[in-house]
Amino acid sequence: MLQSLPNLITVGRIILVPVVIWSIASGNMLLAFWLFVAAGVSDAIDGFIAKRFNAQSEFGAYLDPLADKALLMSIYVTLSLEMLLPRWIVIAVVSRDIMIMGAVVLSWLLNKPVAIKPLIVSKLNTAAQIALAAFVLASTGFKFEAGQAINVLLILAGGLTFVSAAAYLIEWMKHMALDAPETGR
């Protein structure tokens, strides 16, 4: 049972996605903020349980980042539709994640599976994206003026998203070139 507990918590986080989206779309930003915080806490708890009690699984290794991406991308798209985030940041965030998922799938289809390991810049990128989403939800939910902080977070998240996408693309191209036959190009 303990081995499946982290996965059950992760599934709970996936179930939260439509509730958070509904909260944002219905204008209940305070609820959306607290659900986002709960999702973050559940992510930390499932990771702690998995590591501390040796309850890690291959399924969980794939499910956990998918849950995180589903939540973050959904929030970004919804915040953009509600005119609370500019389109360019949403396009950057979603495009980066689709590029990474596409590269992983393509590698698998070409029988050259790539190991999924987060880069340091990717961890910084995720932190910046989470901070931006949390700040927008908090400033709207608690009704405080975002000021220049929103612009700083937008630039930080946007820049790290671009750098992270480039870093993954370079790593993926190196991986795909390993043992590749010469084509004369």
Describe the fold and architecture.
By secondary structure, the protein is an all-alpha fold. The protein has a single domain (5-177), classed as CDP-alcohol phosphotransferase transmembrane (TM) domain (Four Helix Bundle (Hemerythrin (Met), subunit A), Up-down Bundle). The chain contains six helices and no strands. The chain has helices at residues 5-25, 29-52, 58-81, 87-109, 120-141, 149-177. Helix 2 (29-52) runs antiparallel to helix 5 and helix 4 (87-109) runs parallel beside helix 6. The radius of gyration is 18 Å and the shape is globular. It starts with a helix and ends in an 8-residue tail after the last helix.
Features:
single chain; 185 residues; mainly alpha; Four Helix Bundle (Hemerythrin (Met), subunit A); 6 helices; 0% strand
The total strand number stands at 0
Number of domains: 1
Measure the end-to-end span.
54 Å
CATH T-level fold name: Four Helix Bundle (Hemerythrin (Met), subunit A)
- Assembly annotation: single chain
CATH class: Mainly Alpha
Helix content: over 70%
Strand content: under 5%
Order of helices and strands: HHHHHH
Give the CATH superfamily. CDP-alcohol phosphotransferase transmembrane (TM) domain
Average predicted local confidence, pLDDT: 93
Radius of gyration: 18 Å
Major sheet attributes? none
Question: Judging by the overall fold, what is the CATH architecture?
Answer: Up-down Bundle
